[in-house]
Each structure stands twice: as structure tokens, then as C-alpha cells.
Design goal:
Blueprint lengths: L5 H9 L18 H14 L1 H20 L2 H12 L4 E3 L19 E2 L3 E5 L7 E8 L2 E6 L9 E2 L14 E4 L4 E2 L4 E2 L10 H4 L1 H26 L5 H30 L4 H31 L9 H12 L8 H7 L2
Parallel strand pairs: 1-4
Antiparallel strand pairs: 2-8, 3-7, 4-5, 5-9, 6-7
Helix pairs in contact: 2-3, 2-6, 3-6, 6-7, 6-8, 6-9, 7-8, 8-9, 8-10
Length: 330
């Protein structure tokens, strides 16, 4: 059974967060990149699956705003204002999703599947990169795929179940020229492609906050919150999380101002943030597990579910080799 957080996204819509990152000229809140990372950390602390899905919504809207035509940008803004949920479905199995060449320039018919299609059955505006003869383009699906196109058996994870990241068959879907966003290769343009990692790093740090909150609550219930060993353990984790967080914030500031030769160094610093965040979050998981013991890891204990969510989300993407570029330039 799908466990998508419907109520949470209704609340996000009511709070105006589905349009918060749109410019004011398009009816949005104009929330800039540096203000998004604290928001994503707060959401991650409340619900890591919600933060993951919201990050995809923000990413898809950003791509349309950056590379779309004025008409496409306006349509996306209107859809977001109406409560449509956006997402990015990029992961796929070989041979991947293709959009064959159409000599009449009227779009075409998709073939292939996407995997990890987060928000399956609920994301109504999915941005799906597809291979063409000219290169990889972004296709914004004009509506939600029919329910029978999804394969729920694909998504049987240890954690993050509420993201409902199923396999989807896009074969036979017809798309028009108005549904193709930007030019071939735009999806991978830097610095936004690699720099976008800062969004999910913020969410992961929020997930670590939630894990520690749950572990502390367990210790308080057991009357062990004043144990010196526990205090030292949690103090070390807090220091590591704060170090990772400050690195994420600095990385975002650098990306926002980087130009020319500074760009590669700024992207390398993003990789540093990825390494520090993963290490800090894994340390938080270990500290929580040791603190609550076996009893605290049995369902329905909150710590058990939160740990599963965070550990799975930490495997979202592997850090790149760019960190060595930054270190070599120091």
C-alpha cells in the first residue's frame, strides 16, 4: 500500500511552500538559494521523505525556470499555484528513456522506463530527461502517468517508503514541443547540476537531527539522559553535524558568487560538504543506535524508522572526486 504523505503536502500548499521558490513576478515567494537550505533542514527534521519529495519539486521548478521559454515558465508557475506537485525522474535502466527524432518538429513518442520515480501516483508534473539523436533533453510530462504504468513491486525499501519511488513505464506517451524544456545537455549544466547536492545535504542533516531527537527522548524516558557517556557521545555528534552544516552554508555562498576559474573550486567545496555530511550523519546513526539499544530499535519505536530513512537516503548519491581538487588547491 502506498504511504505517500498526502496531508503533509496539503499543509505545504496551504503554507505557500509549493510556490515559495518561484519569483515574485510569477506569483511566488522569491525564496533564494541560500534560504532554501535551512528550510530543507527543517523539513528533514520533521519528515525526511517529505523533504526528499519537496527537494525534487524545487529542483524541477528551478530547471523549468532556468531553461524554459516564457510560456513554459508561466505554465509551470500556474500549475504550482494550483497545487500540482513537480518532481525529477532521472534514474533509469538500460537502454533508458528515448524520444525518437520527429522530422516534423512536433514532439514525439517516448520509449523506456524510469526507476526511483519518487512520488509515484502523486507527482503530476514529472521532469524526465530523455535521450534524443541530438543529446539528452528534459521532457516535462503534461500530466501524471496512468496508475497501471507504475510497478509497486520495485519499491520495497528498508526506509524512505513514503517517497513511493516506483518504476514507471513511459513507453508510448506522446509529448509535444511545448513539453520539451531547454536544449540538449541543459540538465547537466554546471554549477547547478552538482551544486544542487546542497539541497539534499540539508535534508539529510535534518534527518540526523530527528534521529538524535528520538534517541534523546528514549534516554529521557529511561531516565538515562544525565549519563556522562551519553552526553559525550551526543556532544561529539553535535559538533560534527554543526561542522557539516557550516560547510553546506559556505558552499552555497561560494556557489552563489562564483565566476570563471572559481567555479571548479566551488564545486569541489560542495564535494567536501558531501563527505562531511555523510560522515556526520553516519556518526549520528551509530550514536543513536548505541544509545537506545536493541529495545529502541524495535518497531514502532520512532528511532527505528528514522534510522532506516536516514541510512537509505545517505545512499542517494555517492560523493564525487572533486573534493581532491579543493584539497590540492589549499
Amino acid at each position: 500500500m502506498r504511504a505517500f504523505p498526502v496531508a503533509a503536502f496539503a499543509a505545504l500548499q496551504e503554507a505557500g511552500l509549493l510556490v515559495a521558490t518561484l519569483p515574485a513576478a510569477l506569483g511566488g515567494g522569491g525564496l533564494g538559494t541560500h534560504d532554501r537550505v535551512p528550510l530543507l533542514r527543517r523539513l528533514g527534521r520533521l519528515s525526511l521523505p517529505v523533504a526528499r519529495l519537496y527537494e525534487g519539486h524545487v529542483n524541477a521548478l528551478d530547471l523549468v525556470l532556468r531553461f524554459g521559454t516564457p510560456e513554459q515558465r508561466q505554465r509551470a508557475a500556474s500549475d504550482a499555484q494550483a497545487g500540482e506537485l513537480f518532481g525529477v525522474w532521472n534514474t533509469e535502466e538500460a537502454p533508458g528513456v528515448r524520444l525518437p527524432h520527429n522530422s516534423e518538429g512536433s514532439g514525439g513518442v517516448l520509449s523506456g522506463h524510469k526507476t526511483f520515480a519518487s512520488g509515484a501516483g502523486h507527482v503530476t508534473r514529472a521532469l524526465c530527461p530523455a535521450e534524443t539523436d541530438a543529446g539528452r533533453v528534459m521532457v516535462l510530462l503534461p500530466g501524471a502517468p496512468a496508475p497501471e504504468r507504475f510497478d509497486p513491486s520495485f519499491w520495497q525499501p528498508a526506509g524512505m517508503r513514503a517517497t513511493v519511488s516506483e518504476r514507471v513505464d513511459l513507453g508510448g506517451l506522446r509529448v509535444g514541443v511545448k513539453d520539451i524544456i531547454g536544449q540538449p545537455g541543459d540538465y547537466y549544466r554546471q554549477p547547478d547540476f552538482s551544486g544542487g547536492a546542497l539541497r539534499f545535504l540539508a535534508a539529510q542533516l535534518g534527518g540526523a537531527d530527528a534521529v538524535l531527537d528520538a534517541a534523546r527522548a528514549t534516554l529521557q524516558r529511561l531516565g538515562r539522559q544525565h549519563d556522562d557517556v551519553q552526553r559525550l557521545r551526543f556532544a561529539e555528534v553535535a559538533a560534527r553535524l554543526e561542522g557539516a552544516w557550516q560547510t553546506v552554508l559556505r558552499a552555497q555562498r561560494q556557489l552563489d558568487t562564483a565566476q570563471g576559474s572559481d567555479l571548479e573550486r566551488s564545486l569541489a567545496y560542495v564535494s567536501i560538504a558531501r563527505v562531511l555530511t555523510e560522515d556526520a550523519c553516519l556518526l549520528a546513526c551509530e550514536a543513536a543506535e548505541r544509545a537506545v539499544g536493541a529495545r529502541g530499535l524495535l518497531p514502532p519505536a520512532p528511532t527505528e524508522r528514522l534510522l532506516r530513512d536516514l541510512r537509505l537516503y545517505l545512499r542517494h548519491l555517492r560523493p564525487t572526486r572533486r573534493a581532491s581538487t579543493w584539497a590540492a588547491s589549499c
